[in-house]
Amino acid sequence: MLEFEKGFETVNKTFRIPVEIADQLEQLAGKYNTSVNKIVIQCLEYALAHTAENTTQPEV
């Protein structure tokens, strides 16, 4: 289930993304009755939290 924070400081940035991804983001936003911006924020937070630098992996 998608969950969104409220009340955080923001900054405006411009990104170019493939049309197919933009379409998928818009579909998700419609499905959850929210904005594409909120969907993008959650996707970015998830990606950042799950990068190799932020995950603990057992040493070999």
Structure overview:
The chain has a domain at 19-49. The protein is globular. It starts with 18 loop residues before the first helix and ends in an 11-residue tail after the last helix. Helices cover 45% and strands 0% of the residues. It is mainly alpha-helical. The protein is built from 2 helices and no strands. It has helices at 19-31, 36-49.
Write the layout of secondary structure elements.
Elements: H1 19-31, H2 36-49
Helix pairs in contact: 1-2
Protein name: Arc-like DNA binding domain-containing protein
Organism: Ruminococcus champanellensis (strain DSM 18848 / JCM 17042 / KCTC 15320 / 18P13)
GO biological process, one term: regulation of DNA-templated transcription
Order of helices and strands: HH
Radius of gyration: 14 Å
| Gross geometry | globular
Binned strand content:
under 5%
Count, helices? 2
- Uncertain regions: pLDDT < 50 for 5+ in a row? none
Structural class: mainly alpha
Average pLDDT, all residues: 85
- Give me the count of strands: 0
Distance between the termini: 35 Å
What fraction, in percent, of the residue positions are helical? 40-55%
Query: Largest sheet, described in full?
Result: none
Task: Provide tags for this entry.
60 residues, mainly alpha, Arc-like DNA binding domain-containing protein, Arc_rbn_hlx_hlx, Ribbon_hlx_hlx
Give a short synopsis of this structure.
One of its GO terms (biological process) is regulation of DNA-templated transcription. With 60 residues, the protein is mainly α.
